[in-house]
Structure prediction request, 274 residues.
Amino acid sequence: MYYWDKVEEALKYIEKKTSVRPEAAVILGSGLGSAAESIEDPQIIPYHDIPYWPRSTAPGHAGRLVLGRLGGKTVAAMQGRVHYYEGYNMQEVTFPMRVLACLGVKALVATNASGGVNLDFRPGTIAAITDHINFMGINPLAGVNNDKWGVRFPDMTEAYDKKFIETLERAAREENIELKKGVYIAFSGPSFETPAEVRMARIMGADMVGMSTVPEVLVANHMGVRVLGISCAANYAAGITQEKLTHTEVLEVMERCGGGLSRLVERFLAEAEL
Prediction:
């Protein structure tokens, strides 16, 4: 079975299970799944029920698709994503984004947990992603191109929508939430970066480092979906302090960030023109 046939089968299953036709997709990263609790009239589909949909195995990722209304918009929220380091290939990692784009979403709000490379990005900092550096060593658009989905060589000059960022900045002011802006660099993981890699990332212009988001953003752009990226720095990246890094620490900080980030996403959706 071809990849796009699998996407079509998953799409048909979701269409049968719910009448919700989302305007926006929201990816809730590590420890941020509780943000889905704000969704009104939620309809929940476990990932394992959807044909070919990859299962989340990383801690802090519930593995559920929640459809409903948030900020006055119809949304499909992913409570957890899958990562390349879990053993999935890039087509599998981005399968949910393909399905949601085919379902009709026009916007993607992608959230994640990151490590602060920029010294100003202390733990708990929320930042709009203005651009990214793909240091994962692979691109999900490699392989046969489906011309119905997008062009062979998609432009990435504005991978993160500038108008969306402006709307997010306004939403942050209204919610009295400090918001920074910066460049996100993605490594493949699952090991945290070495101090030398973090120094390299800083020289390259990165402010935050993580192990996700870039694949979904590339595919969203390929399919004409506008993107807003929001990252929460869960810790300083390796070598900046003497502390050893743990995923437990990441989840603890993200739990504290969750309330503010949820308010910010809801306010953004209420004010954004999708």
Remarks:
- The helical segments are 3-17, 90-93, 95-103, 162-174, 195-204, 214-222, 247-271.
- Strands lie at 24-28, 40-46, 64-70, 73-79, 107-116, 126-134, 179-186, 208-210, 226-236.
